Automatic annotation (TrEMBL):
<dbReference type="GO" id="GO:0008234">
    <property type="term" value="F:cysteine-type peptidase activity"/>
</dbReference>
<comment type="similarity">
    <text>Belongs to the peptidase C40 family.</text>
</comment>
<keyword id="KW-0645">Protease</keyword>
<keyword id="KW-0788">Thiol protease</keyword>
<keyword id="KW-0378">Hydrolase</keyword>
<feature type="domain" description="NlpC/P60">
    <location>
        <begin position="1"/>
        <end position="108"/>
    </location>
</feature>
<protein>
    <submittedName>
        <fullName>NlpC/P60 family protein</fullName>
    </submittedName>
</protein>
<dbReference type="InterPro" id="IPR051794">
    <property type="entry name" value="PG_Endopeptidase_C40"/>
</dbReference>
<dbReference type="InterPro" id="IPR000064">
    <property type="entry name" value="NLP_P60_dom"/>
</dbReference>
<dbReference type="GO" id="GO:0006508">
    <property type="term" value="P:proteolysis"/>
</dbReference>
<dbReference type="Pfam" id="PF00877">
    <property type="entry name" value="NLPC_P60"/>
</dbReference>
<dbReference type="InterPro" id="IPR038765">
    <property type="entry name" value="Papain-like_cys_pep_sf"/>
</dbReference>
Amino acid sequence: MSKRGIPYVWGGTTDRGYDCSGLTLKAYAAAGIELPRTAEEQYNAFTRKIAWDDLKPGDLVFFHGLGHVGMISRPGYMVHAPHTGDVVKEEQLSAWRKDSFVGAVRPDRKGVERWAQIQKQRRAPAPAMPTATL
């Protein structure tokens, strides 16, 4: 909440400016939890998804085909970095937001560690295949 009023900056992760996922990345880093960088990666890092009716402060909420993320600040509200030309702010969760809701996650260290292991496996080179000779 202390970041309210800071300008939206695409790719921003500092107090000079934040984008939506940069803001959630910074918030969770302050709590000692390392999140992936983008909204889509943040959503996919956790297998346990939270329903709209079960949202609690600290949950990450995703909208517009995983193109936007905010964090529940209190019941019925989220803090987020909306778009270019705007600033970090708290906003009430409206019917419009509910219509574009994709899902939510409740980040925890185990979930992030599991995501990091999966990403490491994906980046590892494929094992060498035996070559047949004639």
